[in-house]
Amino acid sequence: MYEPQSPAAARKRSALANFMFASRWLQLPLYLGLILAQCVYVYHFWVELVDLVMAAMGSQAALEHIIAAVAVPDAPAPTKLNETTIMLVVLGLIDVVMISNLLIMVIVGGYETFVSRMHLEDHPDQPEWLSHVNASVLKTKLAMAIIGISSIHLLKTFINAGAYEAKTLIAQTGIHVVFLLSAMAIAYTDRIMSNTGNSKQH
């Protein structure tokens, strides 16, 4: 459990140590930049959602925008809003949501871990994972989020599998498998380190 240092102990730190520790605040503009990126994703989500709704209501302009967004090179473009087109648009929306979740984990978890404590212990909306976040937990959760995003992209490719060459399908599947193996390796390594730490305490 973290115990604040006394003023006397704080004064004993060298000026260089204080300067190096204060350099963590250089990360603050990076997290603020990710918040701006989050705003862009929110705008993109609503543009795509509005286009989908308007296309379903018969708007030709919205339909053309959606078809252009989900069109696959060298594949015949659909001429109307069919089930496949709707599915591709919805998968795109889910992809945006999952990337947004990834951004939140990086922004909140990274700031809490590497910059400064947020003191959200009594906040009713504190995420469950934030109560025990550390660098290892953050790495594992980020890896799982990347796997989810990769799964969405792979599913979108498989829906239009006929428009892709076999080597493209194999390459995307291989990349997804690499993500899975990487996440398993990270989780296994963290488990070994946790068990080693617990055994040393006993």
Topology:
Layout: H1 7-12, H2 15-22, H3 28-56, H4 60-70, H5 83-114, H6 135-159, H7 166-201
Helix pairs in contact: 3-4, 3-5, 5-6, 6-7
Low-confidence stretches: none
How much beta, percentage-wise? Answer: under 5%
Q: How many strands appear in the DSSP assignment?
A: 0
Number of domains: 1
3D shape: globular
Secondary structure: helix percent: over 70%
Compute the separation of the termini in Å. 17 Å
Mean pLDDT: 80
Order of helices and strands: HHHHHHH
SS class: mainly alpha
In words, what does this structure look like?
This protein has helices spanning 7-12, 15-22, 28-56, 60-70, 83-114, 135-159, 166-201. The protein is mainly alpha-helical. The protein has one domain. The mean pLDDT is 80.
Give a short summary of the structure.
This protein is mainly alpha-helical and 202 residues long. It has helices spanning 7-12, 15-22, 28-56, 60-70, 83-114, 135-159, 166-201. It is 73% helix and 0% strand.
